[in-house]
Design brief:
Two copies of one chain form a homodimer. Chain A has 16 helices and 13 strands. Chain A is an alpha/beta fold. Chain A folds into three domains: 6-67, Up-down Bundle (Transferase, Pyrimidine Nucleoside Phosphorylase, Chain A, domain 3); 82-311, Nucleoside phosphorylase/phosphoribosyltransferase catalytic domain (Pyrimidine Nucleoside Phosphorylase, Chain A, domain 2, 3-Layer(aba) Sandwich); 325-410, Pyrimidine nucleoside phosphorylase-like, C-terminal domain (Aldehyde Oxidoreductase, domain 3, Alpha-Beta Complex). In chain A, helix 4 crosses helix 10, helix 9 (180-193) packs parallel to helix 10 (214-230) and helix 15 packs antiparallel against helix 16. The first copy, chain A, is globular and about 70 Å long.
């Protein structure tokens, strides 16, 4: 590979220029080896924030992220693979019922997940509230579980896309996270390296989403679909609402409980709707002829869930942890619930102990928010709106403060459609 | 001082916000102590490149740069002080005749200078071609020389504006040099810390200048004048042409020779014009009633030059070094000199050994370019255009290549006015 002058490339991007594919590849490779210093890459990332990246350079940049580590290969599994990635939202436990449901449809789901940071929870944090369950698997264990169960949700090994790990840690401390090409290449670099044959993206927009504006979320979705398609992975995105939390719970064990309800054929309508919509996309993208609604109703998804949890040491029958302190928040006036703000609910759950402020912080398995009402419900004064859960009573007051702001009671209220658009 | 979240401040600036004076001060102070990491400051510098700084935050930022080190004080000198700063150009030896001329007018000139990097020479490099001359003085020596001679040109001590040294070194490797607020605060932070009572800025624009575009140079000049004025330093800027090199020489000893010609009452018209214009501004800004043209004609500026050089160990009567290899470039056709490109002349001198590519490189005292023609001159084929000087013959060919591109022979040619505007 040709070597370049780092400062010249930073200036090129700063001044609105486009990297050649070779330059983009060199930048990622040289940053991974340390030839490009952190202070140079952060300046470059900020320049990208302002001037963007064209499709071709972004594809090369993403490919270089993939090439920085190992790439998993499930081509000899004997079953098609499909994975889902959500950009993150409050109460977003969809992966939990989705992975076993899609597996029960005959599509293998190799789902590498992360932990939560800030107001949205992480899938691994949620599953770790199940007694005995462990997130770390070797590649061989992961492969074996895909063969035996058809679904695995585990921590991404350090061998996948190490360039992205280094770059993301840098962006996190330099105010350069919120760049569409950098977000898109970070997500897609990891997902493509993971070796899935098809990928369905759940790109969220609204107060509780990373992308508050629908226009930005749409651009991110389009960029990721182009990147995946260019890399030979069948990629579809759903643009979904995150003004309102998903389901009735935000918090680790609370969300596992809700996921199990869905697998048992119940659960909140919005969680069921999105689980089925994403499952249909995954099954279709994998080229398998199955109806996820039928499979869910048959109980086979629940069977797959139990096997998936047990395969990773968890006891699917064990009771989930319950918070030592609970407090009910009631309506102060009568009226209609016009808004349940996802951001405030996420903040309340985070303050109660469900989330972490720093990567090394622990989370409380039982902490979180349990909603008793939905947008559009009519309530009378004194009616329970939600229950706050925490193991540490000193967290209750600040959690309550956010939770109180979350709910608006007014004249009329309707929630916008959950699925706003489909991008393929 | 209040402490802030660095990432929040980077995002604030990235999104077009303005720092409070307290935030701006904290950023510089925290960067100086290392609390803010290089990769954070470089991302912030890139954000400033895109979103700028308002007057108030830039003034606080500059004041923090000044406050990061010592501040010289010449208030008990018994004479007013004035200094000049040039943004740098090819053949810009103006400081050499200017400092002794202004001193001879009765205004003390404390001129802290730097070495050259790239295609423009540094004042210290030029003076170091004088046998015996030394650039490094203690503050006490500097003060004593200002009392005895009235002019001193020396290296800036490490105690002045250390925040700027750290920040400039960072900007240099992160593609964030070309930001008007960052350039303005870097220059003005050092110059205000230096303790001068008045400051005249020579802001150059054109192919050989740091600021190629007149509009950018004008904005830089205006920004610096506002910063100086706000800090209580009488500040005036001249906007001057740098499409064409200043005078007939580019190179260290060659430029000293030309400066001595000017002090002796001769020298190229453009060097004399700019020297006198800047001297008048400095004398006027210092509130002294003297006519620099009369003082130059009287020989008192030459006397001051000799004393200034001798005070720093130099022998003003010693012959200047002469390059071991010289080569004359002649006209290949007849016509009028329509352009002598400052950038190409600077590049030629640099390639011949007059400048350095890295801070630690040595420079050749005798290397450089000597022009025999001016814009507008009529030449015949075979007439000498310029002479290339170097001690290392293997540098000759690449120097010649740039020098040949420098000169355009065509139909008609006029140089734009040397002094384009005055900003106060």
């Amino acid at each position: 590979m040709h070597a370049y002058d780092t400062v010249e490339l930073i200036r090129l991007k700063r001044d609105g220029g486009r990297f050649t594919a070779d330059q983009a590849r060199w930048l990622i490779a040289a940053y991974t080896t340390g030839e490009i210093a952190d202070e140079q890459m952060s300046a470059l990332a900020m320049a990208v924030f302002f001037t963007g990246m064209a499709d071709e350079e972004l594809a090369a940049w993403t490919q270089a992220i993939i090439d920085s580590g190992e790439r998993l290969d499930f081509s000899r599994l004997g079953r098609p693979t499909a994975d889902k990635h959500s950009t993150g939202g409050v109460g977003d436990k969809i992966t939990l019922p989705l992975a076993p449901l899609v597996a029960a449809c005959g599509v293998a789901v190799p789902q590498l997940s992360g932990r939560g940071l800030g107001h949205t929870g992480g899938t691994l944090d949620k599953l770790e509230s199940i007694p005995g369950w462990r997130a770390s698997l070797t590649n061989a264990e992961m492969y074996a579980q895909l063969e035996s169960v058809g679904a695995v949700i585990c921590a991404a090994g350090s061998g996948l896309a190490p360039a992205d790990k280094k770059l993301y840690a840098l962006r996190d401390v330099t105010g350069t996270v919120e760049s569409i090409p950098l977000i898109a290449s970070s997500i897609m670099g990891k997902k493509i390296a993971e070796g899935t044959g098809a990928l369905v993206l759940d790109v969220k927009t609204g107060s509780g989403a990373f992308m508050k504006e629908e226009e930005s979320a749409r651009r991110l979705a389009e960029t990721m679909v182009r990147l995946g398609t260019a890399a030979g992975v069948t990629t579809v995105a759903l643009l979904t609402d995150m003004d309102t939390p998903l389901g009735r719970t935000a918090g680790n064990a609370l969300e596992v409980g809700e996921a199990v309800e869905v697998l048992a054929g119940g659960g909140p309508a919005d969680v069921v709707e999105l689980t089925l919509a994403l499952a249909r996309e995954m099954v279709q993208a994998a080229g398998v002829d199955a109806d996820p609604a039928d499979v869910l109703a048959s109980g086979r998804a629940m069977d797959a869930w139990r096997r998936m949890i047990a395969a990773q040491g968890g006891d699917p029958a064990a009771p989930l942890p319950v918070a030592r302190h609970q407090q009910v928040l009631t309506a102060t006036s009568k009226g209609t619930i016009t808004r349940i703000d996802a951001w405030e609910v996420g903040l309340a759950a985070w303050r109660l102990g469900a989330g972490r402020a720093r990567k090394e912080d622990p989370v409380q398995a039982a902490a979180g928010v349990e909603l008793h009402v939905s947008v559009g419900d009519t309530v009378r004064a004194g009616q329970p709106l939600l229950t706050l859960h925490t193991d540490t009573p000193d967290r209750m007051a600040r959690g309550e403060e956010a939770a109180r702001r979350a709910i608006t009671i007014g004249g009329t209220g309707t929630r916008r459609p959950l699925i706003l658009d489909r991008i393929s």
